[in-house]
Design a protein that fits this description.
The chain is mainly beta and 118 residues long. It has no helices and nine strands. It has a four-stranded mixed sheet with strand order 5-6-1-9, with no helix packed on it. It has a three-stranded mixed sheet with strand order 4-3-8, with no helix packed on it.
Length: 118
Amino acid sequence: MTGRKMTALALAVCLAAGAAFSAYGEDEEKISSVTLRVESEIEVGDSGSDVEVTTTSDKYEVDDVEVTNEPDDEWEDGDNPKIRVTLVAEDGYYFKSGFSKSDVTLRGDDATVSSVSR
């Protein structure tokens, strides 16, 4: 099935409070949910791993997107790309404690959140 687009992605989302891990001040706002748009150009027979994750939020940004199971040769039918997305809170914001998979909304290509860590 060469050329068939693979859109089933599993996401692991990593949250970071930013470069300075200081105590949260009264003027900082808690981020209790995130929304991400996932777009993948990975197809059966490809050797690359072109995945883009974006957000329109001004409270956090996508810092890094990494495909963690990129094949040695090429993607085959039935492969399920897995990616790790690192988000960083903007100045004046922080991610709440106990952030969970249900706090993440995904748009775009078919993807599911497999884990969240802070």
